[in-house]
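TICKET: design request
STATUS: open
ATTACHED STRUCTURE:
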């Protein structure tokens, strides 16, 4: 009996598993019973999403055919916001530019000392510590003059008791435009192409078509991603 139960569980569709996760978190995300017209639209949206994911160009005329007016407007709005973001990047405040220069110098000294130490040679990490400290002092001073600078960094800029900031590459704030491997993932705005924005809107439209849209409170981003429409499981 236990063996049969295990076998039945193993053949659950991804959609069923996600539905259970939704219920367990107080969410209501029931699958719609689609008429043939909506099934056809879902199939078209899925094909468009796959093409966009593959980097293919999809004309606006096709998107307007299969998206609602509101959904297509999201593409226009999203692209305008992206262009505005890019314009802001080129107008980086002088205080941020100077901070990045100080951090670049500190990183160089740290990596140099670390490499010498790894090779069993005498190193001077104190120089790197001093450079990081100088950069943080500059940042703290500039923040006291302009609180809007917080938005340029990848983490909470707390210099008080319990601060997570420190004198090493992982513990200093990084500008959201930085390509450093030490920048905190998920805290920064990632550059998006018009194709990225189209794909996100199409995928959301597909998800909303297949599932009933119900507002829920307290649903984590991780759960939302689990509830996203499966790649190949429509449950028709």
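STATUS: resolved
RESOLUTION: sequence designed for all positions
ATTACHED SEQUENCE:
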């Amino acid at each position: 009996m236990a063996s049969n139960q295990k076998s039945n569980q193993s053949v659950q569709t991804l959609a069923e598993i996600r539905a259970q996760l939704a219920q367990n978190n107080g969410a209501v995300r029931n699958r719609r019973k689609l008429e043939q017209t909506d099934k056809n639209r879902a199939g078209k949206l899925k094909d468009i999403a796959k093409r966009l994911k593959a980097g293919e160009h999809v004309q606006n005329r096709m998107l307007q055919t299969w998206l609602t007016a509101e959904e297509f407007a999201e593409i226009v709005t999203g692209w305008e916001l992206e262009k505005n973001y890019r314009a802001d990047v080129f107008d980086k405040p002088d205080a941020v530019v100077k901070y990045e220069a100080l951090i670049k110098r500190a990183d160089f000294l740290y990596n140099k000392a670390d490499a010498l130490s790894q090779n069993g040679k005498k190193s001077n990490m104190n120089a790197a510590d001093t450079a990081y400290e100088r950069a943080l002092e500059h940042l703290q001073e500039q923040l006291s003059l302009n609180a809007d600078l917080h938005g340029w960094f990848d983490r909470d800029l707390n210099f008080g008791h319990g601060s997570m900031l420190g004198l090493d590459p992982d513990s200093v704030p990084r500008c959201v435009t930085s390509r450093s491997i030490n920048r905190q993932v998920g805290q920064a705005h990632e550059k998006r192409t018009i194709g990225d924005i189209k794909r996100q809107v199409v995928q959301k439209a597909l998800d909303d078509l297949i599932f009933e849209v119900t507002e829920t409170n307290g649903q984590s981003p991780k759960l939302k991603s689990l509830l996203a429409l499966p790649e190949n499981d429509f449950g028709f």
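CLOSING REMARK: The longest helix spans residues 94-118. The chain is about 55% helix and 0% strand.
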